[in-house]
Amino acid sequence: MNSNAALAGALAAYRQGRAEEARRAAEEIWRASSDARAAGLLALLEMDAGRLDAALAWNDRACAADPSEVRYEVQGARLCALKDDHGAAHDRFAAIARSRPDTPAAWSGLVAAARKADRRDEARALAAAAYDADPRLAPALEALLDLAGDEPPPESRVPAVPLADRSPISVITCSNAEHRFAAMAASYHRALADWPHEIVRIGDAASLAEGYTRAAAIARGEVFVFTHDDVEILAPDFGHRLARRLDGCDILGVAGATRAAGPAWFLAGWPHLHGMVVYPEGSGYRVTAYSRSVPVAHGIRVMDGVFLAMRREVALTIGWDAETCDGFHGYDVDFTLRAADAGLRLAVASDLALVHRSYGSFDDRWRATASKLSAKHPELNGPYSRDISFVRRTVPDAASAMALIDNWARPGQSPGPAA
Fold first, then answer.
1. In the chain, is it the N or the C terminus that has fewer CB atoms within a 10 Å radius of its CB?
2. Per the omega criterion (within 30 degrees of 0), is the bond before 271 cis?
3. DSSP symbol at 295
4. Which domains does the chain have, with CATH numbers?
């Protein structure tokens, strides 16, 4: 028997709805050759007929006949889930994740089964071990994010900073859009309601570097926060989080890389990317993570300029280069890379709960600045990484986003050293 030709005929019959003809052909192929594909087809036919036990038996025969074909293992785990045997589904998905961790379906299936079988801790431990073994394994990191708790943890807030120790903060932004500035200012005022602060706005900046230089000269705070005007702060205790995280570094951001490999921070690629940023997603939010180094990743060399916090003296000492960065791009890479080269400690925090309402633009103006940056900093001449990965989870509202962020950022939840 020509198994390939016979199987092609059986599959054609199946696709055309001639189930009994497909069954007879597949059974004949199996009897003649024990071809795993025939057993797989019989499993599909039994599943379509609602006979899940028989479908699983045929699927397991397919696995035994061709152990190299992972799709039969995945299908077997899915059949267990369809039978509502979520413990067995968890064990099967876990076995695939251990032996073939580069199978995305194993991780997504593991998450669903672990939730229904109440075995999140086991699944998290497996995903953490796999990710630590290979920090480029995005499905394992995504599984960790998906398995983070949905409810606020018992102690979600960082310890409060005593009133006498609350250094005044200057929130500095360049904005010529009234509606964006008003929304941003209102968000920072809410987030810093119990903290001394001011908002310094430059409405006619020739470039971000030029505007930030002017703002730094008139700002009165001891801590400077340089921020885009299209952000929102979700954390109600933002000032305390910021102060605690800034205690351990000289410049703090929300996203960055431990390697400089191009004129944008994310071009360093995995496993060098770190941090957490939130984006709007319909009526909810999309929480985006770049690594599991929480709550702070240290050893950063370049950072995203959407949010940069530092002591006044750091900002004035490093300064902004308005000649090289004469537009609205590249200023962040230049500033943070010079700061790192000067021996300052750069870090990104994963629990500041900052929402960024745009994704940036990479147009001709960006390319022009990128060329000047690469000439100024030879380190930025690549090679760029094409593994620019992140993981994300969409939640319905701000409260859910904060619960996810706080669960994710707890050291005991997703521990991991900075790369």
1. N
2. yes
3. S
4. 1-68 (1.25.40.10), 167-409 (3.90.550.10)
